[in-house]
Amino acid sequence: MKVCCTAWVFTAPRYNPPYEQAIQTIGELGFDGVELILHDPSDLETYWTPRKVDEICRLYRSFGLALPEFALYQNVVANLPDLDPSAKQRSLAYCEQGCKLARSLGPKIVNMVSQWPIGLKAPIPYPPSYFYVDVPGYDRFDPKLKMQLPEPFDWDTVWSNYVDSMRQAAAIARSYDLRFALEGHANVIVSHTDSFLRLFDQVPDPTFGTTLDVAWQFLQREYIPWSIYKLRSRIFHVHVRDGDGLAAYNLPIGAGILDWDGIVAALRDVGYDGYLSLEIGRYAEPRRYAKESLDYLRDVIARVG
């Protein structure tokens, strides 16, 4: 196992380009790889030009970095759950453009977070982050967790439509010689380990798997080693950060209560030999926290991995 870092650790709080400085910082800190992202469809014209792709490839390789995974942000694929065929097709078309871009950049995996049902409303714009009643930036306190489901809400229809979207997205990725890794967050259609297992039964494609985001599964009260033993070879990539088990799930590695020896040992046992990709948010000293996380993970890997 090796350790990489998501570019958006150094573009926080946003995921948008440019990424050159982030790549340079990740390389200087000594990570083994970097993870990049398509933040918005417009970036295909304004940032990810053929010239920029060549520049980025030369830059990350100059630091000896690998690019194991390329992510498609919610802005790109938000309508995959849409019951309107034309809206869904637009997101599938963007998915294909993202896969084409990924292919030119060099990774073997393309990733996206599972979407929430179209029409779901929460007190904050990003429903997955609505898991605690006292939400930073939310201008009023409500002691009840409240979201509004779309009306009418037919879960069976939502699920079957989404399964079809995942089959098509996986086929698109496969056509570009990529593996497709879906990621679970809270309050999305495929949010936790057991929903992934159900989806894999419906999409029995060996090139379709998951990016296991340790923090988001922990947030949903999963014991991560157990999740790893359930998912096994379907784990294509791993996002890592720590949490306190209460309200903070965006901590540097070692700053929370997760058992990293147990996590790395479980990954070793199921044959995972990919990357642990650091994904932490806004900190006053991101370089320091990233370096401390890198050192911590390398020590664990050397000891048990």
What descriptive keywords fit this protein?
8-stranded parallel beta barrel, 11 helices, 305 residues, 41% helix, alpha/beta
Could you please describe the fold and organization of this structure?
41% of the residues lie in helices and 13% in strands. Helix 5 packs parallel to helix 6 and helix 10 (260-269) packs across helix 11 (286-304). Helix 1 (20-29) links the parallel strand 1 (2-6) and strand 2. With 305 residues, the chain is α/β, with parallel strands linked by helices. The mean pLDDT is 95. It is built from 11 helices and 8 strands. The chain has helices at residues 20-29, 43-46, 50-62, 74-77, 85-105, 155-175, 193-202, 214-219, 224-231, 260-269, 286-304; strands spanning 2-6, 33-38, 69-72, 109-113, 179-183, 208-213, 235-240, 275-278. The chain has an 8-stranded parallel beta barrel, surrounded by 4 helices.
Largest sheet: 8 strands, parallel, barrel
Question: Order of strands in the sheet with the most strands?
Answer: 1-2-3-4-5-6-7-8
Question: What are the secondary-structure elements, in order, as H or E?
Answer: EHEHHEHHEHEHEHHEHEH
The secondary-structure class comes to alpha/beta
In the predicted model, the low-confidence regions spanning at least 5 consecutive residues are none
Helix content: 40-55%
Straight-line distance between termini: 7 Å
Q: How much of the residues is beta strand, in percent?
A: 5-15%
Got a strand count? 8
